[in-house]
Amino acid sequence: MIFGVGIDLQELKQFQKVVDRREEAFLQKVFTERELKYSKQKNFIQSLAGRWAVKEAFLKAMGTGIQNMRALKEIEIINLHGGKPYINLTGELKTKCTVLNIKIDASISHSKDYATGMVVLSRDKSFG
């Protein structure tokens, strides 16, 4: 049973401006060390914008949106073998999703100018 769906689109030029303006403080507030390390091996801005888009899509699917920047760091986007994105939650978000028995599916896509993230949250129909 679908619990929530979220999608987000990031324009790479605009995302680059945000990173340039607030660079280190922004990166440390929003991304984990593992996300930053992975993105440095790729097209840095494209990779980070995709991760940002998935984080926003996840919060939209949860129905909360970005209530505080701290929540963004509790959502870590890692890549499984073959590149499939996986959302690793920590903190309050992990607890909430565990209690609600939420399964998370995510997708990231990039083009020359945009990065997009989509998240589908589902629950077992028999769950409360």
Automatic annotation (TrEMBL):
Q: What is its EC number?
A: 2.7.8.7
Supply the alphabetized keyword list. Cytoplasm, Fatty acid biosynthesis, Fatty acid metabolism, Lipid biosynthesis, Lipid metabolism, Magnesium, Metal-binding, Transferase
The cofactor(s) it depends on are: Mg(2+)
- Which residues, by range, are in coiled-coil regions? none
Q: Which GO terms describe its molecular function?
A: holo-[acyl-carrier-protein] synthase activity; magnesium ion binding
Q: What is its main location?
A: cytoplasm
Q: Which domain of life is it from?
A: Bacteria
> Binding of Mg(2+): at which residues?
D8, E56
- Compartments where located: Cytoplasm
InterPro entries in alphabetical order: 4-PPantetheinyl_Trfase_dom, 4-PPantetheinyl_Trfase_dom_sf, ACPS, Ppantetheine-prot_Trfase_dom
Its UniProt entry gives the catalysed reaction(s) as: apo-[ACP] + CoA = holo-[ACP] + adenosine 3',5'-bisphosphate + H(+)
Which residues are in the 4'-phosphopantetheinyl transferase domain? 4-114
Q: Which GO terms describe its biological process?
A: fatty acid biosynthetic process
Q: Which GO terms describe its cellular component?
A: cytoplasm
**What is the purpose of this protein?**
Transfers the 4'-phosphopantetheine moiety from coenzyme A to a Ser of acyl-carrier-protein.
Note the HAMAP family from the entry: AcpS (MF_00101)
Q: Hey, which family's this protein in?
A: Belongs to the P-Pant transferase superfamily. AcpS family.
Q: What is this protein called?
A: Holo-[acyl-carrier-protein] synthase
> Per UniProt, what is the name of the gene that codes for the protein in this document?
acpS
